[in-house]
Amino acid sequence: MKEQQLIEGCRKGNRLAQKELYDIYSRKMMGVCLRYVSDRETARDLLQDGFVKVFTSVDSYTGIGSFEGWMRKIFVNCALEYLRKSDVLREATDLDNTAELINPDSSVVSDLSAAELMALVQELPAGFRAVFNMFAIEGYSHKEISEMLNITESTSRSQFTRAKQLLQRKINELY
């Protein structure tokens, strides 16, 4: 089935369309979930919750923009909701004077595969990982992140800076 047919099938509650949509997008959306939580079981729970929300709110998809992008936003929001409930940002601090990251050796970073880099990102503390993913990968601004996570913009910036510093240390340890 074509994507538009799948969407229409999901709107009608067609289980075969839902299964096919799941089969097409579950790996990508699992990747999104794993970027926010490092535990595979929790990521699977988020994946399930995300697909439930996709299927129950598919009528709100207007056709503007990509369907995959619309879905990705749902999964990011599921992950952020989980992180807020588990209070992983309680240790977030509002620091305006954090030390800037020393420019990483680009040859070292280019030697890392995407999988190796994502594995290092998964090792970050949950709060750092969330802000890093939202800013560097999802493309949210610090203002948007602060609103979504209920933190200040400067806390978002400091968490991102600290995440970069920690990643740099981990990369330096590897090479």
TrEMBL record:
Q: Does the keyword ATP-binding apply?
A: no
InterPro entries annotated for this entry? RNA_pol_sigma-70-like, RNA_pol_sigma-70_dom, RNA_pol_sigma70_r2, RNA_pol_sigma70_r4_t2, RNA_pol_sigma_r2, RNA_pol_sigma_r3/r4-like, WH-like_DNA-bd_sf
GO MF, one annotated term: sigma factor activity
Question: Is the keyword Transcription regulation assigned to this protein?
Answer: yes
Q: Which residues form the RNA polymerase sigma factor 70 region 4 type domain?
A: 116-167
Ranges for the RNA polymerase sigma-70 region domain? 21-86
GO biological process annotation, one example:
DNA-templated transcription initiation
Which residues constitute the signal peptide according to the record? none
Question: What is the superkingdom listed in this entry's lineage?
Answer: Bacteria
Q: Keywords assigned by UniProt?
A: Sigma factor, Transcription, Transcription regulation
Q: Which Pfam families match?
A: Sigma70_r2, Sigma70_r4_2
**Family assignment?**
Belongs to the sigma-70 factor family. ECF subfamily.
- Record's NCBIfam families? sigma70-ECF
Q: What is this protein called?
A: RNA polymerase sigma-70 factor, ECF subfamily
Q: Which organism is it from?
A: Parabacteroides chinchillae
